Amino acid sequence: xxxxxxxxxxxxxxxxxxxxxxxxxxxxxxxxxxxxxxxxxxxxxxxxxxxxxxxxxxxxxxxxxxxxxxxxxxxxxxxxxxxxxxxxxxxxxxxxxxxxxxxxxxxxxxxxxxxxxxxxxxxxxxxxxxxxxxxxxxxxxxxxxxxxxxxxxxxxxxxxxxxxxxxxxxxxxxxxxxxxxxxxxxxxxxxxxxxxxxxxxxxxxxxxxxxxxxxxxxxxxxxxxxxxxxxxxxxxxxxxxxxxxxxxxxxxxxxxxxxxxxxxxxxxxxxxxxxxxxxxxxxxxxxxxxxxxxxxxxxxxxxxxxxxxxxxxxxxxxxxxxxxxxxxxxxxxxxxxxxxxxxxxxxxxxxxxxxxxxxxxxxxxxxxxxxxxxxxxxxxxxxxxxxxxxxxxxxxxxxxxxxxxxxxxxxxxxxxxxxxxxxxxxxxxxxxxxxxxxxxxxxxxxxxxxxxxxxxxxxxxxxxxxxxxxxxxxxxxxxxxxxxxxxxxxxxxxxxxxxxxxxxxxxxxxxxxxxxxxxxxxxxxxxxxxxxxxxxxxxxxxxxxxxxxxxxxxxxxxxxxxxxxxxxxxxxxxxxxxxxxxxxxxxxxxxxxxxxxxxxxxxxxxxxxxxxxxxxxxxxxxxxxxxxxxxxxxxxxxxxxxxxxxxxxxxxxxxxxxxxxxxxxxxxxxxxxxxxxxxxxxxx
Length: 684
Description:
Among the domains are: 2-84, Orthogonal Bundle (Arc Repressor Mutant, subunit A); 95-165, Winged helix-like DNA-binding domain superfamily/Winged helix DNA-binding domain (Arc Repressor Mutant, subunit A), CATH 1.10.10; 193-294; 411-479, Rossmann fold; 534-680, Mannitol-specific EII, Chain A. It is 55% helix and 11% strand. Strand 4 (146-150) and strand 5 (154-158) form a beta hairpin. It is globular and about 85 Å long. Residues 1-9, 239-252 and 506-529 have low confidence and may be disordered.
C-alpha cells in the first residue's frame, strides 16, 4: 500500500512524552534533565528535539525555542491542539502500544475483527499484526480474558463483562493519548463512524457537564479527558441488558457513586444502548481515581442565570425563526452550562479539536450565537470567548436536531411500486427500518393520479412518475447507499423547513386546531422531563388574592407568609429577597405587572416552593418598563435545584397574551390554579 511506503515516521512515544513535559513547564528545560528522565544519550535527546522541531514547523508552523542546551515551548495552546489531532499515520506505535490498541479495538467490537481491519486502523501492515498475535494472547490473558481466533472470521476477546470493563478502564486511564489517536485514525477511515463519534462526543460533553453541575464538582482537564474518553468508547461498545433499579439502591453519601449514577442515568437516556446497572460500579471505580474539586453551590445565583439563559434562547428563537424556547431540555442543559461558565476560569475550559470542527461546520449558527452573547457578557462582565460560544453551539445544535427529529416523525409518506405486493412490502419494510416518517399507504403509478396528495409530504417510488405536480424520490426496492442519502437529505430539509416556517406567536387567540398542531409537531415527548410542574408548586393554599400592601417590600413579605407558615422558607430568606432588590435593583420584575422575587439557593430554603399573590392595588418595584406590579410570585429553591421545569413553564405562560388577564378575572384561588393548568396545556 502506498501510504506504508510514504509513511512519515517522526513522532514516537519518547518524543511525544518530551512534548508533554515541555507543555507542563513554564521555563526552559535543560536537555540534560531530559537525558536523565529517558535514560538515553544527550545526542539522542538533541536528535529528538531537532526532529520534533522540524516536524512541528512542517505540519503546524510551530517551533521550539532552543538555547544553550535548554528548550522551551512558547505556543503551548497550539502544540496542545496539534497533539490532540495526531493519528496513527503521524505516530509510530511501538509493540506495547500496538498490543494496547489492538486490545481496545477488540474490547469495543461486537463481532470478530480481521487482521486487515486492525492493520488499517493502525496504518500498519497485515504481517505486523500477524507477528503481534502471540504477544496479544499473553497480553489479554494477563487481563483474565482469552483471545479467540477463527480462520476467515478474525479475532475476538472472550471474557466476562466485568473483566472487559476493568480492562477498558485500565486502558483509558493509562492511554488517553492512544485513544485520541485511535479516534482520529478511525475518523479518517470511515465517514459514517466519524459522524457517530462526533455526535457521541457532543452528547458526552453535555452528560459530564450536567453531572458536574448536579454534584457541584468540576473535573480537572486531564480527568475530564479520561472520563469523556471512557464514555465515548463505552458508547461505541457492545449493548448490555438494562435492569430497572431503585435509585436508593445505589445513591449514598459517597460522591464517586453519586456522580457515577448520574452519568449512568444519562447514558441510558441519550444512547440507544442498554446498560447494566453494574456500569455504575465500573464508573465509580474510574471516578475514584480522577481529580475534581468541589464547588460551593451557595455562591451561585442560579435563578438569575435561568433568566439569562431564557433571554438568550428567546433572542436565538427570533434570530433563527425557530421556537427553541419550547425545548425544556435546551433550557435545562444550557442553564447548567452557563452556570458552569461562572465557575470555570478560562484556562479550565477543555479546548477539544472537535469544538473547532463544530464551529467550522456551523458557521452561521456560531455567528448568530456570538451576536446574541451580549446578555452573557453583561452578566459576567467580561468577553465571551469563542471556545465558550462553540460549547453553546453544541447545545443549540442538539435542540435543533431534536426538533427536526420531531418534525420528521410527523412527515407522511406514500410508496409507489408497480412490481407487485412482494416488492412493495419489501420496500415498506426497508423504509420503516431506516427512517422515522409515517408510511400511510402503498399504491401503483396509475392509481396515484386519482389520489389527493395534498396531505402527503414524501412520495417514494421505484418507477418514473408522470402527470403529478409534486416532487418524488425514485429509489431501488432494496434501498442502496445512494438512495438512503437521497431520502435522508430530502426529509432533513423538509423537516427543517417545517420548523423554519413555524409561527413563534403562541397565544390563546390561536385556534384550537392551530395550537394542537403546534403541540403535536414539536412537543410530543419533548417536555416530558422529570420534575415538578408549575401547578404542583402553585396549589390552592399557596395562592392568595387581593391582598392590601403599601409598597413592594410589604408585597414580598405578605406573599411569603404562606411559605413561612409551612416552614418552607425562613425569615432570613425573606430579608435576603428584599436586600437583593435594594442592592441590585428591580431585576425580579420579569414581565409587565409581574414580579418574581427570589434569593440565592441556600440553606435558608427548607423546601423548593412557590407562592402567588394578587395585589388589590398595584405597587411600583422601580421598573421603568413593567411597573406597576399586580402579581408577586415568590420562588424559593433548595439545594436540590428542582425548580427548573416550573420556572420554564412560568416564563412560557407570561408570554401568552391574556394569561395575566385571566388571573385578574379569577374569583378564587381554585380558579387561578385552573387558569394556570389551562394555559399550561398549550405547551404541555
